[in-house]
């Protein structure tokens, strides 16, 4: 029988006894009051015993009793016992975690909601110079590099911050913060000294080799031009050989120039000024039209078209504006839509190089009778340059890799397209230096769109 049923039966039997005795003696009310007070005093006594047992943490054996109170003591005791087992098991897991993280070669620091140190492993104590007594101290008070403090306050931990070790400036650390739990964060620091050293050696090697190649290339190019001038055309083999040698020399020259540009982008400090992007794009398009016009065999003449904002109201659609008579129909391939006159802070030469590469690729990888659209406009939270072509397109698997150096997608082409394979790598580095992102959307056989998104903080007047 359930303990609560027993308690109920006992209470009913006591009430029945009081009713019988009270009916025989005429003292039902006094006897019922005495019974009620007795039961109340008994419950108060049991509650007092239970409170004293709980006050001590419930560690001792629970008091002897009966009825429902015995069940209450037993259930609480069992809960406390299970909790103790779980706490012991959790403690073992925490100890194992700390032992494993102590053995990690990377530094690990657990930070609280207010950036205070809650725990640090051995590697963290070595590379950051932390002590056991630093527990509870705020990490910005101990690691005082401005880059790290800005990174900590920014809340954007998608990319690591690179900084020297506070105890040894010859050690370079890549510090990353991972948020977890309720306001807790895990700071991880990896020693990237060797990686940075190898990267620096690679940059120096590329820069030195590129510089050393420029002189012999200049000499070869000069002698080839002299030999071509001396060629009387009587030997087709000799003429063809000179032309091929000249083409390969120019290709090598472009490759060296692109490598030197990439090296400068990776090593030189950023220079910023307010750039008139609409004027820059107009100039780039005119230059591209002229260059591709000379390469075309067409003899027709047509004015190139620029799309400019309506002079009266920016809410109106763009209108066609002739730039001038250019030599052939290839120039009309470029449609420039300037939907905003916004300027941005940056380096003009770097932006010129990036925009020229995007436009050159669009013209190079699309049919000569197709249109390449260049659009400069302002979206909700960024300023965007779109370069859209109707060319061969890029396979979805190749899109993530086209900005790698020397990577070229495997597409069967009717004619061979020359290039160094560094154009989009240059674009990516320029955009990174301008806090911008490159988005690529493409479909095989239908064309591609390259979108450069500049943050609104780059806007200048």
Automatic annotation (TrEMBL):
GO terms for biological process: cellular response to phosphate starvation. This is histidine kinase. One of its GO terms (cellular component) is plasma membrane. The keyword Zinc-finger does not apply. It catalyses: ATP + protein L-histidine = ADP + protein N-phospho-L-histidine. Pfam families: HATPase_c, HisKA, PAS_8, PhoR. Its EC number is 2.7.13.3.
């Amino acid at each position: 029988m359930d303990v609560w049923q027993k308690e109920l039966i006992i209470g009913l039997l006591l009430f029945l006894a009081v009713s019988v005795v009270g009916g025989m003696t005429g003292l039902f009310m006094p006897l019922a009051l005495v019974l009620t007070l007795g039961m109340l005093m008994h419950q108060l006594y049991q509650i007092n015993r239970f409170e004293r047992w709980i006050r001590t943490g419930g560690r001792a054996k629970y008091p002897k009793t009966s009825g429902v109170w015995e069940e209450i003591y037993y259930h609480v005791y069992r809960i406390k016992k299970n909790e103790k087992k779980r706490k012991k098991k959790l403690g073992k897991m925490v100890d194992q975690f700390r032992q494993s993280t102590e053995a990690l070669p990377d530094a690990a620091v657990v930070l609280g909601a207010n950036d205070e140190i809650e725990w640090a492993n051995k590697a963290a104590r070595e590379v950051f110079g932390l002590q056991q007594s630093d527990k509870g101290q705020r990490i910005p008070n101990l690691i005082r590099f401005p880059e790290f403090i800005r990174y900590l306050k920014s809340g954007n931990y998608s990319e690591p911050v690179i900084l020297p070790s506070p105890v040894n400036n010859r050690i370079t650390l890549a510090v990353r913060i991972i948020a977890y739990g309720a306001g807790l964060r895990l700071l991880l620091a990896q020693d990237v000294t060797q990686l940075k050293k190898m990267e620096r050696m690679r940059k120096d090697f590329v820069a030195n080799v590129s510089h050393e190649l420029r002189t012999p290339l200049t000499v070869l190019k000069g002698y080839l031009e002299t030999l071509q001038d001396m060629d009387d055309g009587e030997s087709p083999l000799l003429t063809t050989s000179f032309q091929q040698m000249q083409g390969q020399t120019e290709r090598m020259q472009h490759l060296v120039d692109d490598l030197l540009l990439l090296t400068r982008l990776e090593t030189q400090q950023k220079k910023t000024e307010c750039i008139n992007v609409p004027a820059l794009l107009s100039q780039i398009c005119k230059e591209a039209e002229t260059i591709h016009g000379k390469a075309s065999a067409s003899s027709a003449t047509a004015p190139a078209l620029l799309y400019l904002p309506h002079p009266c109201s920016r809410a109106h659609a763009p209108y066609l504006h002739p730039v001038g008579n250019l030599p052939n129909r290839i120039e009309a391939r470029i449609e420039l839509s300037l939907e905003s006159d916004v300027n941005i802070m940056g380096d003009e030469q770097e932006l010129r190089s990036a925009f020229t590469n995007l436009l050159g690729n669009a013209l190079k990888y699309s049919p000569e009778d197709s249109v390449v659209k260049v659009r400069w406009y302002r979206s909700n939270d960024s300023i965007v340059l779109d370069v859209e072509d109707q060319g061969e397109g890029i396979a979805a698997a190749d899109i993530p890799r086209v900005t790698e150096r020397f990577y070229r997608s495997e597409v069967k082409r009717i004619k061979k397209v020359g290039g160094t394979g560094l154009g989009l790598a240059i674009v990516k580095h320029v955009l990174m230096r301008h806090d911008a992102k490159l988005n690529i959307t493409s479909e095989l056989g239908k064309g591609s769109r390259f979108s450069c998104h500049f943050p609104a903080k780059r806007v200048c007047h």
